[in-house]
Protein: Pyroglutamyl-peptidase I
Organism: Microbacterium oleivorans
Amino acid sequence: MRTVLLTGFEPFAGDATNPSGDAVRLVADGWAGPERLVTSVLPVAFNAARLRLRELIVEHSPDVIIATGLAGGRAGMSVERIAINLIDARIPDNAGDQPVDVPAVPRSPAAHFSTLPVKSIIADIAAAGIPASVSHSAGTFVCNHVMYTALDSGEPGDRAAGFIHVPYATGSAPEGKPSLPLADIARALRIAIRTSLDTEIDVSYAAGSIW
Ligand code: PCA
């Protein structure tokens, strides 16, 4: 039986909630298989998140890893294409660490591309009426670090791994910030899981940006 690992994050930066962790809990509650779904809400801390993710990978040998986090201010589901080997934390993480200008993993490649079917996921989420787009930067904070860790762990070809940033959830978004209902964020993640399991070769269509 194939195993999917889906992660979200706990709240950070003084927020009361994190829609990524909340949506992951919703997906876990409603999961009916047939694949095995393992979920985890990770700490927003560089070292602890990396350690926890690596433990989960060793324990469960997932075939698909979809890590998620909040990108407050983005308007829809934002499927990340690339993780870079760089930490430049603008704020301290939840453990009080604020590394600046250091590699995520010393002596590892400068970057890793997502091995999820990024464009198929975006097309399928959009077809369900939920806004989704490709992103070419997961930032330089804990989300990028977790995406890099997921892609830097294990032999390439073993599994599909990547990251999806979610917007604020309606009701907990700061004034004037874009949001989606939490139920739609969870629905989009369910679609991303199914598409990742079912797609062998990603579709190709123009979805890049000029700047
Ligand atoms: N978003 C942050 C870290 C945790 C989260 O949900 C990020 O984008 O790095």
Notes: The chain has a mean pLDDT of 96. Residues 16 and 87 are 25 Å apart (CA to CA).
